[in-house]
């Protein structure tokens, strides 16, 4: 017969008897959790100083303190910072490539990647910079596609010296398309690849949700495009410094390739493959 009084009530663990133990979960990147107090559900994008950043399916970001108050598949967890080993095990570059920690930059190749302007170069650096340093690819901007012919003649592409060119607004019938076709017929055709995206400016390659828009607005031709965008967003645009600050605000919202439109992603990857081909 069972003896209901036989157990020692003061034995180790008596305080935890019947208590539900909430498991600990490392806040690894892309882990989807729900914050109980607000009901906000999103994927982990960053952990820093005991704060976790979550991003929902609409691209909205929220910051929460690590600890209790989170659910995974409806079950409570204590969210903690990931261990170094776990972080290194899944480390990715901003372009989505597997990162190579502490890898030295490769000596620059003879081949180059050319883009139209400073903003294009800054965007490529932010998303693909780590990959390009590993591959030894230098990015240069040509200050407008009208300068492409002169740039190529000075660069003199050839075997082992390829030029990949990213062009804005490369659509049928545009000035950019005519310049690209001329390059394809020119003396350097075998060692030059010109590709582009359909956007008026590289600003449009950033997903509009990142700056609080559902879509990039249509700007009348009578208004300079970047000024029109700043006006639509309620940002100053009277001076060139205003335009520069507007771009920095947009660029700051770009963290990984997921913040960019696929029409740009595919073209940049194509160019990197072209200029790194042995």
From TrEMBL:
Residues 25-82, 111-276 form the DUF3097 domain. Signal peptide: none annotated. It comes from the Bacteria. InterPro entries: DUF3097_C, DUF3097_N. It holds the Pfam family DUF3097_C. This is DUF3097 domain-containing protein.
